[in-house]
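Dear colleagues,

As part of the handover before I leave the project, I'm documenting each prediction I ran so the next person doesn't have to rerun anything. This entry is a single chain, and its sequence is reproduced below.
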Amino acid sequence: MRTNLAFNRLLTGFILLIIVMISLRIIFYQNIRYLSIIWNLFLAWIPFAISFNFKQLPVKNKVQQLLVFFCWLIFFPNALYIITDLIHLNEDTSVPIWFDAAFLFSSAFVGLLMAFVSLARAENYLLHYFNYNMVRVVLIPILLFVSSFGVYLGRFERWNSWDVITNPFALSADILHFVGKPVTNYKVWAITLLFSLLYGFFYFSLKILPLLFSEMKIHDKPTPKKDNKV
């Protein structure tokens, strides 16, 4: 409970910092270009919020479980998507590039934090139904691959999560085009695979870091001084 509270405070601090940076861009440079980042962060927060429900899902109600997990999966790419906003650094503006680099990196980092915390909760949820190797070696990579494809659809094809409901036929047709002609659309799958590997390395690195810090804490403890009394 304390760890969740500390993380939520850290997250709130990060978001407030991003809002301050956007405000500074508007006040000093009269530039409102990155206001959309706030919307992107909200979309990244949705799967993070949904993942809170994984612990509380009734075991016997399979329909509710599938519905919650499906909603999480539909919105999950939004949390990974923010890292692609770094392409805006190429834009020519009056704002110093170092400022925008710090701003966009902070936004991407917050998005990835929310993404990987929600993915860890999804992983714990899946462990109730599958063994450890199945989840870690098969299901998590599949989820990252599917979500990376979702990032591609959002960044390059300009699809949104809610198009699953508002425009399902056109979205399905687009997806089937890419799936049905993988050789013709090799660039799509190359980008998807690259994103998958990138997110995978990020995710598993973050899972290893606490263990590394824990080991360092143990090994770095000062050895007690021996009493030299005769």
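The chain has eight helices and no strands. The chain has a mean pLDDT of 90.

All the best with the project,
I.
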